[in-house]
Structure formats: C-alpha cells, structure tokens
Amino acid sequence: MRRHLWVRIGLVAAVVAVAIWYLYPPGKSINLGLDLQGGIHLVLGVDVAKAVEAQVERAGDSVRAELDKKGIGVTKIERSGPTELVIQIGSPQSWDAALATVGEVLGSFERKEADQAAGRIVMALQPREATQIRDLAVRQGLETIRNRIDQFGVAEPSIQQQGENRILVQLPGVQDPERAKALIGKTALLEFKLVDDKVDPESALKNGVPEGDEILYQRRVDKQTHQERRIPFVVQKKAYVTGRDVATARVSIDQTTSEPYVSVDFNAAGARAFAELTEANVGRRLAIVLDGNVHSAPQIRERIPSGRAQITGGFTSQEATDLAIVLRAGALPAPVQVLEERTVGPSLGADSIRKGLISTAAAALAVVTFMLIYYRLSGLVADLALALNLLLLLAAMAGFHATLTLPGIAGIVLTIGMAVDTNILIFERIREEIRGGKTVRASIDAGFARAFRTIIDTHATVLVSAAILYQFGTGPVKGFAVSLAIGILVSLFTAVFFTRLIFDLMYMGSRRVERISI
Amino acid sequence: MLQIFVNADYDFVGKRHWFYGVSLGAVLLSIASIILHGGLNYGIDFTGGALVQVRYEKPVTVAEVRKGLDELGLGTAIIQQFGDAAEYLIRLPPAEQNTQQLGDRVRGALGKAAGTGVEIRRLEFVGPQVGRDLQVQALYAVLAGMVGILIYVAFRFDFRGGVIAILALAHDVMVTLGALSLSNLEMSLPVLAALLTIVGYSINDTIVVFDRIRETRGRGPRRGHSLADLINGALNQTLSRTILTSFTTFLAALVLLIFGGEVLRDFAFALVIGVVTGTYSSVAAASLIVDWEAWIGRRRAAVATPGRAASAPGVSKGATQAARKR
C-alpha cells in the first residue's frame, strides 16, 4: 500500500512544521499553571441573598421617604424574611393614599397582604426580580474584582464566573497572596453616616438603640500592645453619601503626622449631597464607615462645597494604597466569602517543575528502552512515533492555550506509557500474522487493518473518562484531563498514521522483503 | 525475537472460579478496610479545611511545629513531615473561619516558636460547603464515567459486554479504593482523577479480549469448540499484548510514584494499583461470559419450550450459539 506516499510524507512534515511554529520560542509558548509557577487560585462565593436583602431594604427606605413626603404617618417599615417588606401605617384615614403610594413606589413587588384594620401592608419582591438582582450582583462583583485586580497590577489574571454565584480568580505569580486576597475580598462599602449625639453609646448597648439608629464600632489597635479596642458609636442607619458617589480616590501623606490617608473626590451628585449634608449639620459628627467599621468620626466645622473628603485612621501606606484601589474600583454589590483557596509559593512550583521533568525523562527512557529491546527496529519506529507524539502534544497545548499543571505533567507521563500501547497492539498483530504464515507485506497490511478497530475502541474509552474529568475537575485536574485527552488523540496520528508511513517506506518498496525486525 | 507468552495455552476459563474467589476476596477486603477506617479517608478537597505546607530554614522537630500551632488555637492540627525534616504539611480541621491572614498567622507563630524563618510553600483552603459539593460531584463523576463506558461498550459490542465491563470496572475501582484505605492514603482530587483514568484505561484490556472473541466468532463456529475454548483461545492469543500494553503504562505510573514527588504520590499509587488490577480483571471478566451464557441458557430452557429456545431472538450471538449446542 504505497498510495499517496508523497502526500503522506508532506502531511507529516507539515504537521511537524506547524507544531514547531506553535512551540517557538521554547519555554514561552506554554502557559504554566498556578501550581507550577506559583500563584493564587480563589473561589469566591457571592452572598447573593445579602444583595437581595439590601435591595429590599433600599426599597423600604424609598417607600418611607415617599410616604413622609405625602404626609402619611408610618409607624414601622421593616424587612421580614429575605424578600418581604412589612409596612405599618400610622394614620388609618390615609389608608387608600398609602396603599396607592406603596404600590407606585414598589413596582417590582407584589402585594401579599393589606389589612386595613391593622394598618398593615405586606409586599413581596417578585421572584423574577430577585433572580435578576442575584445575577446582577454576581456580574457586578465579577466586574468590580476585575477592576481591582487590574489596578493592583497582575500579569495575566483570570477572573471567571463559576456556576451560579461563584467567582473563580486565578492570579499567577503573585508574591503577596494575603494582600491580594484582602484586596479582592473587601466589600469596600463606603458610607457617610451622621452620629446620633443624643444617645450615649454605653446606655444604647444596654437598653437598645432608637428606631432608625444602629451601633457601629471603631477598631483601634494599640501600636505597643497590639491589643484591639472596639469603640461603639451610635449612628443613624441612613447613609447620606456612599461609595457610589466617589469619582476617584488617592493616597496622600499628612504633612504634620506624616501618616498616610486616603483622599476621596466625589462626583457632581455626590459633591452636592455632601455639601447639603455638611451645611445642614454643622457641629455634628460625621462617621466615615467602611464595611460596617467606623474609620473616623470627625466633627463637621462648616459646609464643605469642594466635594472632597479625607479618610484617616492609622493606615500603613500599603493599607492606604489598597483602600484607594478598592474605592476607585467601587464596592462589591454583595459580600463575598472565600470558599476555596489554593496558594502555591514560587519555590514549590519550581520544585514541581523539576520533579515533573525528571519523571517525564525517566518514563520516556524506560518505555523507549523497553520498546527497543522488545521490538528492535520496529521498536525504534515506535519510539520515533512517541517522540513525535510528545512534540505534537506540547504544540497542541500551546496552540489551544491550554495550561500545563503538575497533574498535567502526570498526564504527559501517562501518555508516554499509553501511546506505545497502540504500537504494541499493531506490532503484536503483525507478529501473529507472520506466525500464521503470511508474507511480511501482507502481515503489515493485516496488522494495521485488524488492530485499528481495537485501537479506536480503547481510545474512545479513555476519552470518555477524560471528558468527564474535564467537566468535573477544577484547575489542576482539568490540566490532567486536557493533556491525557490530547495525548490519546495525537497517538492516533503518530502511532497509526506515522508508524504506517515509516513501515511503508521501509518495507513496501520495490525490493522483495523477506524479514522484518519486529 | 524477544517474546512472551508465544504459544500460551492456559485454561483461564477452567480456573475462573479461582479468579472469582480472588476478586471477591479483594473486594470484600477493600470494603472491610474502608468500613474499619470509618469510611474513605477524604482529604481536605472533600471535607473542607486547610492545608499548609511550610518550609523552615533549618530542620525542626514536630514538637516545635506543634508548639507554634498551639498558640494559634486553630483546632486539632495533623502535622506530617514532608520530605526532609525542614518541611511539614499541616492539616487544619474545617472551620467557617476566613483564610484571611491564615498564611501570615501560621508563618508568624511557627517562626516564633522555632526561632527560625518559615516559608509558606503551599496553602490550600476548602470551605466545608465546597467540600460537600465535591464529594457528591466526585461520586457522580465516577458513576458517569462508568455509565459512559457501559454505553460505549454496549454500543460497540453488546449489552452483555457492557455489563461485564462495568462489573470489571467496579471491581477495579473498589480494589484501588481498598488499597488506598489499607495504605492510609487520602482520597483527594488527584486521586479521583486517577480513579477516572483507571475507569477509562483498565477497560482497554477487556476490549482487546472482547474484540478478539468477536473476531474469532465471526469466522463461524468450529466443530468441537465450546464457548469456553473460544474464550480461552482469545485470552491466550491476546495475553502478550494485554500484559505488554499494561506494562508500559505501569512503568510510566511507577516512574511517577518514584520521581513525581509527594504531591503526586497518592495519585501515582492509585494508578499503579489500578493498572495492575485492571489487567487482571480483564481475564476474569472475559471468563464471566461463560457463566452469563450458561445462566441465560438455563433461564431460556426453563421459560421457553425446547423448540423455541433455539430460534428465540438472541440477546447475543453467543446465547443462541450456546443454546444450539445443547
């Protein structure tokens, strides 16, 4: 079967050329996984329930404001359960107006209960709306984290949504994982709230806070003893200005104390709100609250029209830098929680690479030697096919931008063992045909033809496993599935097509062939 | 020419009850070991928890590591030397705690207790929820792998072949899990990858034998040859390639076990066991066909009238063939 000999030689040459082209320049063309080059792999869970709750509470605030404006007395508005608002109307005579206003403001809610005698309205967020809020929270979270990482400066980060409400963040080569994690995980909800000076924090802790107020703490770490003190503040729940209104934030150094602080510039709307707030509350204290912690609570001395605020609070310069980054990138729409973390230091990665290379070399040596001893010249052909297999496997990984992980290297080592299986099946079949009395050429023909079906079957089952592994696996394990699958597919080309070509060149010429070294 | 098993003529089928005995024994031993160990020894991938690999600047004792950890009060830690005496693997129990600063805290406490520098080489944290999710998904993955192969084998051969292949696979997975349990190794994500690879690979030998059986059968029944002879013939003819193909893969897995380092050790161990048991089980699995046919034949004979038994639409060619001989 010497058909299309030149076409086949050309095809092999072309494949080799393409492979080399993909692999050039060596060492740069293949992405190394986090376990090999060091880095962080984080799976973050977005607390979507909190996003929905926050949205429901904001809707409650809007209703209260609207009812107040219309002069309808409200005793209480509170969230009950994740998606319900309970509105207690104080004045029964304005029931109809109240009902209309509530329906108007809460367009995305449906009425569950309206009890005129009790003055009670219960509104529930429509399920479709809640789903939308959850989706949006994850999407915005993804976007915000991407912004932060971009500003932090990581080469080739990968940020993806995983499942319904998880975010997968992969940061290769990050030197300070704790810092990166803190930067990503911070909600960074900045709020400016008025301190309720009428209430003493100590008594509020004992007797409860008035309606519309809450207790927040300021954390102070003593520089000498490293003891943390928590100072309570009674503040109004309503946030007058928030991080949404921040246009930009940057680090500055206080001239007198030489302590770094973060300077925040508001956008136009924020500046107006800030000016109104400061004008109306001169003399009162304004708490600057970040993620529920009071950073500082300076007294308002005068109206501040510039739309600029300073956040102080004993930062190190790194903390100040990171705070500026998260304020610029914006707050996360919902808190995130680290569900899974895998951090690998660069030295361990280098260690793994070394062990991987040794394993690959040792496995190749063992298998190559075995094939040479057992099949002699044909074994050499199989070894050539194996070399080609490895070349193509690496090129395919480069071409598909697949990531090489430590389990991926294990997959390559296994491929070395499995790729020659195909040749063994063919060679054993050829031997059998020769024993059966066929000529060398007929035996080669029959050997390839008969072994082929078996080869397809064996490849298919390994591919089924690899596919499931890929579906299921996370990072490193996925890498294993990828290299195993590619190696197995490539071996069809190298162990069958390429080996056949060499055999044809060796034994199918015009000369008579009496013997075959197999 | 170097050859093994050239004119092999072993009576595998005749000794099949020995195989069944050994397999059943191995599976029971595996199950017993797993039960006695209180279930599979799941790693943090599946239980949640944290794993910190630390390297000290100079060798330290386990007691020094423990002293440092005790100060942090993170719960019962399992400390394990990793390679030389300067490197340790610390497992912390699952907790809802944040990993924020966990690395820094461990580094600080360990360094202070031992009076030397400490490098965090690896930190893995898996939340309890993620772990639970993974346990379920892992089970699904192995089952899906088996079902996928059942479907493939049933499609390429017949339903009987698929069922027998699955029995062999379940056996291989069970024995590998048993070997892991007996060696006190952990069920981690890489080990799961090894199990799935075994599912895909160990079936290969079985397929080679099945292929040969089908091929021989395709030439038509030979006078004086029973089904047992046919299967014995197929097993013996393919014996050398079954052993050789597994041997090369076994070599590769063994190399990984020796040179791959601690991270890949459990993974490589599972593969080595899986490749060996997969090769063995293919012989036993092929022998199972004989009993299957005999069983079907008996049922047919019991249910159908003798005249219809021979011409009944066969589940497989073998069944009618077996029936015809009677």
Report on this model:
The complex is a heterodimer of chains A (518) and B (326). Chain A folds into three domains: 5-37 and 345-507, Multidrug efflux transporter AcrB transmembrane fold (Up-down Bundle); 49-129, Hypothetical Protein, Haloacid Dehalogenase-like Hydrolase, Chain: A, domain 2 (2-Layer Sandwich); 186-342, Gyrase A, domain 2 (2-Layer Sandwich). Chain A has 13 helices and 18 strands. In chain A, helix 3 (48-69) packs across helix 4, helix 10 (346-399) packs across helix 11 and helix 11 (406-435) runs antiparallel to helix 12 (440-472). With 518 residues, chain A is α+β, with helices and mostly antiparallel strands. In chain A, 53% of the residues lie in helices and 23% in strands. The relative contact order of chain B is 0.13. With 326 residues, chain B is of the alpha+beta class. Chain B has two domains: 16-40 and 131-325, Multidrug efflux transporter AcrB transmembrane domain (Multidrug efflux transporter AcrB transmembrane fold), CATH 1.20.1640.10; 49-126, 2-Layer Sandwich (Alpha-Beta Plaits), CATH 3.30.70.3400. Chain B has helices at 16-36, 44-47, 62-72, 102-114, 128-156, 159-182, 189-201, 203-218, 227-259, 262-303, 306-311, 317-325; strands spanning 49-56, 78-82, 84-92, 118-126. Chains A and B meet through helix 6, strand 17, helix 10, helix 11 and helix 12 of A and strand 4, helix 5, helix 7, helix 8 and helix 9 of B.
CATH class assignment of the largest domain in chain A: Mainly Alpha
Shape of chain A: elongated
Let me know the largest β-sheet of chain A: 5 strands, mixed, barrel
- Give the number of domains of chain A: 3
| Element order of chain B: H for helix, E for strand | HHEHEEHEHHHHHHHH
Q: What coarse outline of chain B follows from CA principal-axis ratios?
A: elongated
Q: Give the distance, in angstroms, between the N- and C-terminal Cα atoms of chain A.
A: 19 Å
The CATH topology of the largest domain in chain B turns out to be Multidrug efflux transporter AcrB transmembrane fold
Quaternary state of this entry equals heterodimer
Overall pLDDT of chain A: 87
Q: What is the CATH T-level topology of the largest domain in chain A?
A: Multidrug efflux transporter AcrB transmembrane fold
